[in-house]
Amino acid sequence: MLNLVVLGLVQGLTEYLPVSSTAHLLFAEYFLGVARPGLVLEAVLHLGTAAAAVILFRRDLGRLARGAMAWVARRADPYAAPAVAVVVATAVTAAIGLAFEAPLERLFTSVRGAALQLLATGAILFWQRERGRRGLTDATPLDGVALGVAQAIAIVPGISRSGVTIVAGLALGLHRAEAARLSFLMAVPAILGASLFSLKDLPRLAGTGIRLADLVAGFTVATVVGMAAIAWLMHLVQRRRLAWFGVYCWAVGLAVLAAVR
Questions:
Q1: How buried is residue 210: exposed, middle or buried, by Cβ count under 10 Å (0-12/13-18/19+)?
Q2: 225 near 199, Cβ under 8 Å?
């Protein structure tokens, strides 16, 4: 159970921070010697972090749900456009992920590859610049396409989903805090969809020694720590401190490359 708690802690801390949770899970599993039953273990932990975003952004998610219904009914609603943007982003991410499922799944076993991609994430975070002051309700379906592509790129281990989508949001002219907020809202359907899809491999757990209680412990830790990580990142985004995560990504990426032969 201790290994699952540690992995839940890693997942909760890194899912929303711009440092790639998938890379950190790969690193933790490698150095802890945890067996990898497909992607099902990660799926359970990702569900925990999805629950964290649902809890913290439940009001925004409710507004988006009403906005989506208003869009279908052709009623005016300030959250109709951002709701469509989130749906479009999710569809684009899913389409790209399914189209490249086999090669992407092979990448999930490469520790060195994840470390190299983490260096790329660091470079992206150094590049980020705020270019506008648009808010969440200014998001458009075209924004959704761009953000969906960015989110799909982050399927590659080592590329941070939150980092890439926040930087993409800034490039599209979103205010810094609003780019982060939209990134977290987009994460909910993306993480839920990918996690539920990966749960098809649940029977593989039978021969790994991982029990249901272990998964519950990992899920719970990921949820609680994920909530704290979201609150912390929102604070840091307001203070324009994302570049520090770029330094961290480079330091960890180089350290793993040096340690793994």
A1: buried
A2: no
**AA letter at 195:** S
Tell me which residue of 61, 42, 19, 58 sits closest to 199, measured CA to CA: 42
pLDDT bin (cut points 50, 70, 90) of residue 207 is low
> Tokens 């249901």 appear where?
212
Burial classification of residue 201, based on how many CB atoms lie within 10 Å of its CB (0-12 exposed, 13-18 middle, 19 or more buried): middle
Q: Quickly state the pLDDT bin for 37 (edges 50, 70, 90).
A: very low
pTM value?
A: 0.87
Quick: pLDDT tens for 219-231: 899 899 999 999 9
> Is 108 within 8 Å of 39 (Cβ atoms)?
yes
Q: What is the DSSP string of 8-31?
A: HHHHHHHTTTTT-HHHHHHHHHHH
